[in-house]
Amino acid sequence: MEPIPAADLIPARPTVRSLSRAASSCTACELWRGTTQTVFGEGAAGADLMLVGEQPGDREDHVGRPFVGPAGAMLDKALDAAGIDRESIYVTNVVKHFNHEQRGKRRIHRKPKWGHVDACRPWFLAELAVVSPSVLVCLGATAAQALLGRTFLLTHHRGEFIESPVAPYVTATIHPSAIVRISDGERREQEFDRFVQDLIAATAPIRRERSPS
């Protein structure tokens, strides 16, 4: 089957629902062949806050929803600690299929290639146009470099607001999967607390907009 560019599948008047339906038949890169389904973003159009990760994981690929595996559980815990209602935000990934390698019965995560990111970019740009968030938070280096340029260093600019055309306020922090992978309990708790503080800081512009003048 010849790959069909994602841009050719985007509806003329897109909504979150119509984009998700259209993306289910995407073959813009080879990742669709070895996965269960496309995992599109979810949330409300008009959400003030958008969180963007790298790609779905094994659990997300089976369920068909973003951030429902171990990293998703960590994200939900952090959102709760930060006082952010997940139902009020939009969550997605820059790559919509699970890039992995098979090891016996297990499917092991592989970092997506830039070709995968580029193939999926029209989907993300369409999501961005429909949702139009005030604040966009990149979760992890891959998402940050996909949106802010390949030279972006998360270690140098974590938690900073970066000027970008993608949203009025754009910032980056670690991916919650990085916290899941920390084996030392004390260090994991410290990193979790810092992640929560990053989320709280990211929503400061939204709180200012909502506060009575």
Question: How would you describe this structure to a colleague?
Answer:
The chain is α/β, with parallel strands linked by helices. The chain has a single domain, classed as Uracil-DNA Glycosylase, subunit E (3-Layer(aba) Sandwich). Helices cover 41% and strands 13% of the residues. The protein contains nine helices and six strands, in the order αβααβββαβααβααα. It has helices at 16-23, 58-63, 70-82, 114-131, 141-148, 154-157, 176-180, 185-202, 204-210, and strands spanning 49-53, 90-93, 100-103, 106-109, 135-139, 169-173. A four-stranded parallel sheet has the order 2-1-5-6. A two-stranded antiparallel ribbon has the order 3-4. The longest helix is centred in the middle third of the chain and has 18 residues, at 114-131. The model has no long low-confidence stretch (mean pLDDT 95).
Assign the CATH superfamily: Uracil-DNA glycosylase-like domain
Query: Roughly how much helix do the residues carry, as a percent range?
Result: 40-55%
Number of DSSP-assigned strands: 6
Strand content: 5-15%
Q: List unreliable stretches of 5+ residues.
A: none
- What CATH first level would be assigned? Alpha Beta
End-to-end gap: 57 Å
Shape designation: globular
* Total count of domains: 1
